[in-house]
Design a protein that fits this description.
CATH superfamily of the largest domain: TPP-binding domain
Radius of gyration: 20 Å
Low-confidence stretches: 1-5, 7-18
Largest sheet: 6 strands, parallel
Number of domains: 2
Structural class: alpha/beta
Bound molecules: 2'-O-acetyl adenosine-5-diphosphoribose
CATH architecture of the largest domain: 3-Layer(aba) Sandwich
Number of strands: 9
Number of helices: 12
Distance between the termini: 24 Å
Mean pLDDT: 91
Strand order of the largest sheet: 3-2-1-7-8-9
Length: about 270
């Protein structure tokens, strides 16, 4: 653990605490700038399969990497649109879980909490988190495949074609407003995310395999800038060897535990 962070974590200690969750809780103080980097494991307990587990039923013979690409959409737009319809149905039926709600509460206990998410399901916002940067877009929004202008739900609900034609360009089709393999991240969101990790005291990676760049580089940027780096995941990842604190648990349990320790700490 970086010396400055270790010192910060020890300040105000005195109470007997043990274990990784306590260490992390001690570092999340009213003056702390906290960044959460979330991945699809964060949504798993809401019933949304993780990115690499997303293929069920009819879709089990396709790899997500073969559907979430501009080439797949150019080749077979109907198949890709229907795959997203299937996933959107799951997202609409899902509800934020206790871990999402713990993050909303954590916002009130630290100086600044930013969630940088790779998830495209909008669950952090639905649970009430205020500051969420979407690195990979949001599958509940649609844009024109040519102009990238937003397409409204009203337009989509009256469309008969699959995918619906775009109202913005004669050759355009509606497509999900997400980042596909081979596409660039939204510049503004990524730029802001880099700024946040460069200026945070604590960064917690939750439910991500830490395999997909450039999102996977963010926790290491935080660490190099002197932040305490923590990870929440039931399974070790390539990041695990580099973290100061590893909570080897599902997101819901780990985040509620973290919150309840913080609630019990003297103010
Ligand atoms: P992955 O599916 O690669 O990884 C999900 C991670 O969540 C794994 O490490 C699991 O061990 C972990 N996990 C599963 N259940 C969990 C739980 N209950 N609590 C905590 N962790 C749990 O998903 P991502 O890392 O999000 O991008 O994948 C990153 C990006 O890969 C996705 O956003 C997607 C894909 O490329 C795009 O579509 C652009």
């Amino acid at each position: 653990m970086p010396v400055a962070v270790e010192k910060a974590c020890q300040e105000g200690a005195g109470q007997v605490m043990s274990g990784a969750a306590e260490t992390l809780a001690r570092c999340c103080k009213p003056s702390t700038r906290l960044v959460i980097l979330s991945g699809s494991g964060m949504s798993a307990e809401s019933g949304i399969p993780t990115f690499r587990d997303a293929q069920t039923g009819l879709w089990s013979r396709f790899r997500p990497e073969d559907l979430a690409t501009p080439e797949a959409f150019a080749r077979d737009p109907e198949r890709v649109w229907r795959w997203y319809e299937h996933r959107r149905d799951g997202v609409r039926a899902a509800r934020p879980h206790a871990g999402h709600r713990a993050l909303v509460d954590l916002e009130t206990r630290v100086a600044r909490l930013t969630i940088v998410t790779q998830n495209v399901d909008g669950l952090h916002q639905r649970s009430g988190s205020q500051r969420v940067l979407e690195l990979h877009g949001n599958m509940l929004r649609s844009i024109c495949s040519v102009s990238r202008k937003p397409i409204s739900e009203t337009w989509l609900s009256t469309a008969e074609d699959v995918p619906p034609r775009s109202p913005h360009a004669s050759e355009g089709l509606a497509r999900p407003d997400v980042v596909w393999f081979g596409e660039s991240l939204p510049e503004h969101a990524f730029h802001e995310a880099v700024g946040e990790v460069n200026n945070c005291d604590v960064c917690i990676a939750v439910g991500t395999s830490a395999l997909v760049q450039p999102a996977a580089s963010l926790p290491m940027i935080a660490r190099e800038a002197g932040a305490l780096l923590a990870e929440i995941n039931p399974v070790p990842t390539p990041l695990s060897d580099h973290v100061d604190v590893f909570l080897r648990e599902p997101a819901g349990r780990a985040l509620t535990q973290l919150l309840s320790i913080m609630q019990a700490m003297p103010g």
